Amino acid sequence: MSEHNKKNPKLLLVPKKTKSSMAGLLFPVARVYRLLKRGSYADRVGLGSAIYLAAVLEYLTAEILELAGNAARENKKSRILPHHIQLAVRNDEELNKLFSCVTIAQGGVPPNVLPELLPKRHGLLKPPHKNVWSQEF
């Protein structure tokens, strides 16, 4: 066997680093890059734009999941349901603006009861008696 036919064992042991791991992201940078190129958004697409878009998508996903997890915990549930995502999005001002034209399937509506419809509370706020002296002497 000649030297050219032998495979170098050092090259086989080195694992390949993905674009996502090099960028420090969890979202697939290569897939975003491929979809940007195939989408005909521009004649040329740089790799930096795919990394930036993947980072933005990862941040938005983490933000929504964190708020939805808090909403699920408030409702004493261990699973995030579409209703919890709806509550998380509609209670956050910036996400509500971003998702203003979005309908979340099986999300329901946020609870909203007008104060006029609530029963009136009697006896909680009593007016002071007229003959009661002040505590200042």
Largest sheet: none
Average pLDDT for all residues: 86
- Element-level helix/strand string: HHHHHH
Number of strands: 0
Task: Please bin the fraction of helical residues.
Answer: 40-55%
Q: How much β-strand is present in the residues?
A: under 5%
Q: Count of helices?
A: 6
Shape: elongated
Q: Structural class, from helix and strand content?
A: mainly alpha
List the uncertain runs.
none
Q: How large, in whole angstroms, is the Cα Rg?
A: 29 Å
Kindly, what is the distance between the CA atoms of the first and last residues, rounded to a whole number of angstroms? 110 Å
Overview of this structure, please?
With about 140 residues, the chain is mainly alpha-helical. The chain is about 45% helix and about 0% strand. The chain is built from six helices and no strands. The longest helix has 28 residues, at about 45-75. The termini are far apart.
